[in-house]
Specification:
Blueprint: E1 5-14, H1 19-29, E2 34-41, E3 47-56, H2 58-70, E4 74-79, E5 85-96, H3 100-113, E6 116-120, E7 125-131, H4 133-146, E8 149-161
Antiparallel strand pairs: 1-3, 1-4, 2-3, 5-7, 5-8, 6-7
């Protein structure tokens, strides 16, 4: 029986206007829920790489890959779900309305999570995080449990296949 889980795809696509809209349109048109989508140019300016996370069952995921492969602008579809990867997600977290003691606690949390404090205000701290999505989730949960007001902006995960075995 197929089970729902997060699945990862890397797409190499032509770097042209409208390609992102076509790819995301395929997902929305079929009611597939994107968890994350990041895109950027590669070493070749004419080619972009998309990293996509979708939650689906096995059958639906196979359909998604086939439909992506049929798109003219798609050069290559890679299933990264069970591949050793290096994956990070950028996240900014503002911790607002904090006093001096709470600000010190934010600094301690940043140190433990190995994230950067990139801006400080009179009553706020801005953290920049380049962690795995799961570790970012852990950080957000901790910040929510300790502080009254936080704002979070997530940039989506990027991933690259490992060049050595056993890395994830």
């Amino acid at each position: 029986m197929s089970n729902m889980k997060n699945r990862w795809i890397a797409l190499y696509v032509e770097n042209e206007v409208g390609v992102l809209a076509k790819v995301s349109g395929l997902f929305s048109g079929k009611s597939y829920n994107l968890q994350s989508l990041t895109v950027g140019t590669t070493e070749d300016e004419t080619i972009s790489r998309m990293t996509i996370c979708v939650t689906s069952d096995d059958i639906t995921f196979e359909q998604i890959k086939k439909q992506l492969n049929r798109m003219v602008e798609v050069i290559k579809v890679m299933d990264l779900t069970d591949v050793p990867l290096h994956m990070k997600e950028i996240l900014f977290a503002k911790v607002l309305d904090v006093n001096a003691a709470e600000k010190e606690e934010v600094f301690q949390i940043a140190q433990v999570f190995k994230v950067d404090v990139v801006d400080i205000g009179k009553d706020s701290v801005l953290l920049e995080c380049k962690l795995t999505a799961r570790r970012n989730d852990d950080l957000i949960a901790l910040l929510k449990s300790k502080f009254h007001r936080i704002e979070v902006v997530r940039g989506g995960a990027v991933a690259i296949e490992s060049i050595s075995t056993g890395c994830r």
